[in-house]
Amino acid sequence: MSIYEQAKEAASELIEAAGLKAGDTLVIGCSTSEVLGGKIGTVRSPETALEIYRGISEITDEKGIFIAAQCCEHLNRAIITEAENAERHGWERVCAVPHPHAGGSFATVTYQNLKNPVTVEEIQADAGIDIGETLIGMHLKRVAVPVRLKNDFIGKAKLTAARTRPKYIGGERTKYE
Question: Could you report the per-residue pLDDT of 49-64, keeping only the tens digit for each?
């Protein structure tokens, strides 16, 4: 299975498992180095990033779900998303444009392919896919729940997925949905 197909399948499976709907946000952290079998940050590949972006965006575009691409540590793991998404949530914009050496290949490709991209410092996404152990947890809503996907790799990179749910509060008398 190609990298494009693996990415598309992972996004499709997570979107279904998480019950994502139009207007929700899916955060993606991606190390193309790890996908290609290297150590994170050592084998930048815009071509690989584009294949992953195409696979994921095909599903998210169809369902009206926003992509949020996590930048690498050199941009403090900032997020690239559509301006409409950032404005809707009140996420504060910052001044930075990713490139492969500061932001990473996937964030760069996402920035180049969105209609009106912006960079924001932090978000609270509804679900996420972490490709290559890039640590997306800081950008998920407070209660993240692991989702086990059929295929736990894209290329040679370990794949971790999560959905979120509202917090359970209360005590023994509380009834939950």
Answer: 999 999 999 999 999 9
